[in-house]
């Protein structure tokens, strides 16, 4: 008997801080005006996507003491944007990245519970930690948390927020919906939490939301991050976009679920993916090359090389050879607030490898960055891209993809119009929403809150 086809999950990422957006394209729109967010969300909902995802940076990145040239200055607050999008969409899930290092559980729980009410059960929280004191300088507790403790705080943060969500039992209602006056159980919303990071007690003042609590996402790729996802998350983002790497990540993370009493279908694995479409394979390949060159200007290539070399390279020609000087290995780094810095643990080894690649391929600095950086995940005709996405999912390399177009806000339109109908024809993607909440879209059960609620009420 043949194995039933898995259903594909699709989401859309409105990029913020990024090297993805082709800002020079006349079709590139604002990352600040609400009309851009609304267009993007409406396209995703028209295509029956599971959710829209907003990342969030808590500090503008700097390089050599100057704001990094690809940062979006003035990006609106995540909760504000998602709440506004709840009013212009009906089914699309609304996912936001909110930091557990520099926020407080009561505040974040109240914001997500409110968003879940405003959206009729479509909210999701991407729980992240912050690893650098540079970002922390924007906050009262800047730099206070050692890196090894950040997941400890994140776990307790999420546990505490869950206690707040669960402090209202399912049978408690508002007696007067017009005024919000509650006349029921006096224990509603009561909570007490004492732990290493938080010592709070009181009453949670937002009633039970339509989903019970928001869907939980996690984005860490470290062993701690994978374990955290296996224990707590409903979905985990993945950075592995090749079939082999995707299958290895998928197998590893799913194998951790059993120790927490969870089934394989209780955690979804969703890599980010870029795409370029063309009427022919050749046209798509040529467009992909052009997009990549426009994503990596000469100035951008030099800045990227500085991540590794940890020195000012502005005097070098991006169309010329790599520097003959070695990287500066130091605890002090030219780039601040950048996750990329952590990816290059051994800059001297990376420099040697890149010099060998550049020499063998006759690459300039810009050529090297273009060819070693993040290239488009899916390139081809709509039929080819639809087939490849389905192959990944059926081969257990992912449960779906979070699509990141290189144009905002219109870059998702062609995918919605040309690729999604082909997936629907194959019977691997919904023709319409079957439910109303994000948990419905993702195939996740409503949380069982009975025991947790009783503990909180007592």
UniProtKB/TrEMBL annotation:
Q: Tell whether Nucleotidyltransferase is among the UniProt keywords.
A: no
Q: Which GO terms describe its molecular function?
A: monooxygenase activity
Keyword Lipid metabolism in annotation: no
EC class: oxidoreductase
Alphabetized CDD domains for the sequence: Nitrilotriacetate_monoxgenase
| Gene3D superfamilies (UniProt xref) | Luciferase-like domain
E.C. number(s) listed in UniProt: 1.14.-.-
Can you tell me where the transmembrane regions are?
none
Domain (Luciferase-like) spans 25-395
Q: What keywords would UniProt list here?
A: Flavoprotein, FMN, Monooxygenase, Oxidoreductase
Annotated family: Belongs to the NtaA/SnaA/DszA monooxygenase family.
Q: What name does the UniProt record give this protein?
A: NtaA/DmoA family FMN-dependent monooxygenase
